[in-house]
Amino acid sequence: MDPKAAAMASEDPARQAMLKAIPHLRAFAISLTGNSTYADDLVQAALLRGLENLDKFQPGTSMQAWLFTILRNQFYTEVRQRCREVADPDGVMVGNLATMPEQGARLDFNDMQSALARLSGEQREALLLVGAEGVSYEEAARICGTTLGTIKSRISRARTRLAELLDLEPEEDLGPDRLVKATLFLQAST
Fold it and tell me: At what angle do helices 13-33 and 36-52 cross, to 10 degrees?
């Protein structure tokens, strides 16, 4: 110990009691951990916490018992934290935990609803019957009271108009979205 620290410790009985408790703290820490290196780290953490909270120490009580309590609490806090942690030095598990953002689908749905509302009633009706409800072209023609050719024409025009309203580019926007494509590209390149 450096002479200045020794002089400070000799002046302050609480600090002197802390220094006197170090060998006992170390023995206790080794009994808890079974590892002298980890025990030394625990002792150091307990002493630092004790110094930080020295104002909470009640004179007349046992400094050693107070520091034992701090050390024991520190040890069990670290044990609980380690139980929740998973060793992943290469980051493989973290890489597998990625989730796609959900807001994109909701925004796309809102855009689609707005675009559908801008179609004519006849085009929207034909498109929803065939596209959303899964009704055949023939059944849609019967439901709408028109011919098969008219239904096909309405659906074709509705699809073209939706593509314009949604600013869709067939090569980019049909199939996986840009975020999915970027993720797949990153995974393929690693």
Answer: 150
